[in-house]
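re: ur question from earlier - yeah i can do the single chain one, its not a big deal. heres the input i used so u can compare w yours
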Amino acid sequence: MTQSMPQALTERFLSYMEDGGPMMWVILCLSVAGFAIFMERVIFFLSTSRRALKFPVPSGGRLGGGEAEILADRLIRAEIYECSRYMSMLEIIVRTAPMLGLLGTVLGMVEMFGALNVGGAIDAGAVTGGIKEALYTTVAGLCCAVPLIFLHGLLSSAIDKREETLSRAADRWIAGQFSDKNSEKNND
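and the output i got, formated as tokens:
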């Protein structure tokens, strides 16, 4: 009886994970977490892309130049802090995944060399199993990290763009604070 395509893929995936050893599951968890963080940040950026930073109008008239700059800086920093949420966690995943792949490689090599020293006989299955584990974990660590490096760069670029947009809006707002104050002085 022929297997269905999803069942065959599932069995192949589970075989790959088993052959790679326990580090494969850790790398898989990191990969899922990294892509979940990326998706959460994409949803955040899409939901806030049209939102404009609202600079308050003081109840007692216009702000002085220094006060306006301080207020604008605080508002921008708060917005960028929100945009940057979870970015450090994504960076940790990007840096950790290849290292876990290397750790899996070392563990596979240890298993392989342990198999070479069993009663003077070489067990070819254990040696090749160790090499397979070593190679699979290296591949898995890189397959986790490489796309996440790219996605981290996209998010960082979006944050930089948002910061520049906010800074320009703040400059216009501050200039408006000065021009209104100067026009009030000229009218007196």
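The longest helix spans residues 124-187. not sure if urs matches, ping me
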